[in-house]
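Researcher: Quick sanity check before group meeting.
Model: Go ahead. Protein one:
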Amino acid sequence: MQTEVITKKKVKPKLGKIREGSRQKKTKAIDTNVLSLDEMFNKFMIAKKTEGLAPRTIEEYYKHYDNLKEFLGEDMTNENVTTEDFQGYIGFMIHDKELSPMTVNIRIRTMRAFIRYCHKKEWIYEPIHEDFKPIKTPEDTVRILHTRRSYEDDG
């Protein structure tokens, strides 16, 4: 008797269908690089606190940021913050709040440090901190008062 060897034909799976089913639907990717101004400021303040700044300085940073938020009226993102926002803020402090140039400059320096930090961390791609600078202030006059007696005593 003859023995018939039947070999089963291996069936290859249809890879096309397997691959199709495993594909994820293409959806718009969520950009995890979008940060709100609040998120960036909170990260900035963590860095400032680790630098060992005085409590009063930390408090002032928060106050200055609150003033900026008051002007902006809404939270912005790193994608839509502009130089014009900060130039408008400077005008707001000078004309609407009627703050002294010295006070305005302190607040400008605080916000420039914040935006510079954001640019350094590449959260903000444009160096907008370079486009808004402290305003001109009247030169302080330093008056040295000498009495004739103290002048003669020195000499």
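Researcher: Fine. The other one?
Model: Protein two, sequence then structure:
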Amino acid sequence: MDIKILNKTDLEWVLFIEDLCFGSRAWSREMLISHLGEFLGVGIKDLGYVLYKLAGDEIEIYRIAIHPIHQRQSKAKRLLEFLLNRERDKTFFLEVSSHNESAIGLYEACGFQKIHVRKHYYEDGSDALIYKKPPMDVLENFSFDIPS
């Protein structure tokens, strides 16, 4: 399964997964058309996607969604790591509900650090946690091992 850069031709399957994952909180067709036209996304057809905005040397991640039958199989991590590696010189930001423990675990496993809390931000009373991941250090993936 190949990860691809999303465009408007991906709208139908993105909309389908959006509805499955977010229900009443799903973005509308119009919102997704607007996002795919103005901003960016990466995904694997019929499996999942990451929607984000690039502004200078920063990326704000808006959505990560994986089809429910593929959740808890590291697919979201694969997509997120693809984006982090592709844009390794950027600083990443995202926001997540304090009740979304699986997403928090994913972000922390990928090196994001909590930088701020917006108390009682969401309708359900949960806090919004703001996470940041600075640009990847060149030495972060460097190995001193000598190949044999």
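Researcher: One line on it for the slide.
Model: The chain has four helices and seven strands.
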